[in-house]
Amino acid sequence: MSDFKQLGLSDSTLKVLEQIGFEKPTPIQEQAIPVLLKDEATDLVGLAQTGTGKTAAFGLPLVERVDDNDPSLQALIMAPTRELGQQTAQQLVAFSKGQKKLNVEVVYGGASIMDQIRALKRPTQIVVATPGRLLDLIKRRAIKLSNVKYVVLDEADEMLNMGFKEDIDEILSHTMEDRVTWLFSATMPREIKNIAKKYMNNPVEIAVNKESEVNTDISHQYVITKTSNKVPAVRRFLDIQPEMRGIMFCRTKRETQEIADDLGNLGYGVEALHGDLSQSQRDAVMRRFKQRSMQLLVATDVAARGIDVNDLTHVMHHKLPDQLESYTHRSGRTARAGRKGISLAFINPREVRQITMLERRVKVKFEQVQVPN
Description:
Order of helices and strands: HHHEHEHEHEHEHHEHEHEHEHEHEEHEHE
Number of helices: 16
Strand order of the largest sheet: 3-4-2-5-6-1-7
Radius of gyration: 21 Å
Mean pLDDT: 90
Shape: globular
């Protein structure tokens, strides 16, 4: 606990952290929290992979800075997906236990907008939102951003990948000119640099996403097999490792559903997660996954955003992603919290070149493994 004490957090927050079992700050928390707690609030760009503890890195300073005696909306966190938004809101509620009057609301598409409008009528100091639903609420005049002092853009690169650039521009135009902006991203593409340049004032930059640090506990492996043999190959790996618990990434919604159906019909504990499922179906799948009632979740990259499960043994790639950053994102879902994990790609002979390129660019070593007989 002494480590968190040195970051400048208040006694009431330290007490809450002790209750919820936070013992040692992660590198991003260690670097970001003292900067964000400074008397003179500053803009910040934090580069960190998913699973490195960045919600607490911005959430703890936010809870300290927001005035719970002021009922107006003071802080806005934007997240790319409903799942990530919900998790962020849950953590903020846990962090703010010491502040009885602090209220956190989360708003997203796929749920009743009327219920969310009703919830926002209560005094609310922090809102976590997906961009599309937030714009709807602004248009209906159900939310006012004119008092927002702090804006957090979480998983900013993913929001841009999902086409939210114009929505973000529109939303930020409704906030104060002199607001403080904290941007967190796993990667720093040109578009993120542009956002930082346009909306931020001399931001402090913190980077803890050196791939070598993030990936040391992950074994990177690949199997060469014909496309038509990929599902039988996955079955062999499931058969010899009944304790396996993993996510398999596919490129399309259709492929995701077909593979999950094929394996499910053969009696394996496998389900699909993709954008064509209704929100209640997605919630039910995630609940079952977290309760360990399945061995493998087959998902698209977008649907898997915000899945925060610590004890995954495997990440599988039915096809390698086009972008190198996506590979790092995907594989980073295993080997969390000091555990070991395996990232296993199923490739056809023509894709060996991609493995060589990944090794060079991501600076990891891949091992070729055989399909178990």
